Amino acid sequence: MKKIISIPGAPAPIGPYSQAVLKGDTLFVSGQIPLNPVSGELETGSIEEATHRIMKNISALVETAGLRMEDIIKTSIFLKDMSDFATVNTVYASYFTKDFPARETVQVAKLPLDVPVEISCIAIK
Fold it and tell me: Which residue ranges does UniProt annotate as crossing the membrane (predicted)?
């Protein structure tokens, strides 16, 4: 049986998907964009701000599912501009202490709501 996971108090997703799905011990987190779960506003003032918001959203979903950031085993990062790679990488790294997840980072032509970055992940208890 699968369990739908969402950030408490967050607005509904912008499409027909769940923020995250827990199946057994595995959590699948949908691509997160820099959407503030309280205000519903995008936080895209800078690439740092956007990345921090995404990582905070991921952390909230992981914790709501009863897991920890250390349980994340795989992430996917989608960038609108690969020149933001180093900055996103620095912010991303600050959310992990060691044994980083496997990951790929790709540049894409466009992201939902024209955001500069989107990140998804898989975590296992």
Answer: none
Q: Pairing relation of β-strands 102-107 and 72-79?
A: parallel
For the chain, the residue count is: 125
| Structural domains in the chain (count) | 1
From 1, 73, 62, 71, select the one nearest 32 (Cα to Cα).
Answer: 62
Instruction: For residues 107 and 105, give the distance between their C-alpha atoms in angstroms, rounded to a whole number.
Output: 7
State pLDDT tens for residues 65-75.
Answer: 999 999 999 99
123: region left, alpha or beta (phi > 0 left; psi from -120 to 50 alpha): beta
| Amino acid at site 62 | V
Q: DSSP letter for 42, please.
A: B
Q: Domain of 79?
A: 2-124
CATH number of the structural domain spanning residue 19: 3.30.1330.40
Indicate the pLDDT class of residue 15, thresholds 50, 70 and 90: confident
